[in-house]
Specification:
The protein has 160 residues and is of the alpha+beta class. Helices cover 38% and strands 31% of the residues. The chain is built from four helices and six strands; from the N terminus they run H-H-H-E-E-E-E-E-E-H. The chain has a five-stranded mixed β-barrel. The chain is elongated. This is DUF5666 domain-containing protein. Keywords: Membrane, Transmembrane, Transmembrane helix.
């Protein structure tokens, strides 16, 4: 008798609807949690970058970090720009928005010239590159991939 009531309850449309509703709420909570986590990491990197600017670059930042807005948070997971200083394993890259970013190239960092594998020792000042990595607590980017690419000026002048 009790078995039959339980079996009917599991077969009812209301119970199935409740299960679907709970599933949708769980999925929405997971998406919200992922968004909060990504936003927190980006804001943490911006804070760490600002707090460590003087130590990383030996000078004060030009623009105030007190200004709010999306454009004041640097890209935490990479850089696109030219190398302005090399002291391996550290590279200083002037990013496309004219910010200077400290890139850390570890032994396991993949370095490529277009599709050819090279080493970090092959990099030179004024080389144009794309960096993909992860931010650390010092406001630096720990590079996973560094790809040397033609500079935008070269591509425009040759019709690339």
């Amino acid at each position: 008798m009790v078995k039959e009531k339980i079996a009917k309850m599991f077969e009812s449309k209301i119970f199935v609807g409740i299960l679907y509703g709970i599933g949708i709420v769980i999925i929405l909570l997971l998406v919200l949690s992922a968004g909060i986590s990504i936003g927190f990491r980006k804001a943490s990197f911006g804070r760490a970058w600002g707090e460590n600017y003087e130590r990383n670059f030996g000078m004060r930042p030009e623009r105030s970090m007190l200004m709010l807005g999306k454009e004041n948070f640097p890209n935490a997971h990479g850089a696109i720009g030219k190398i302005i200083k090399i002291e391996l394993p550290t590279l200083i890259v002037q990013d496309k928005d004219s910010t200077e970013k400290v890139i850390l190239a570890a032994n396991d960092t993949q370095v490529q010239r277009m599709r050819e594998n090279i080493t970090a020792n092959d990099l030179k000042i004024n080389d144009f590159l794309v960096v993909i990595g992860s931010p650390n607590e010092q406001g630096q980017i720990e590079a996973k991939l560094i790809r040397l690419v033609p500079s935008p000026e070269l591509m425009m002048s040759t019709g690339f």
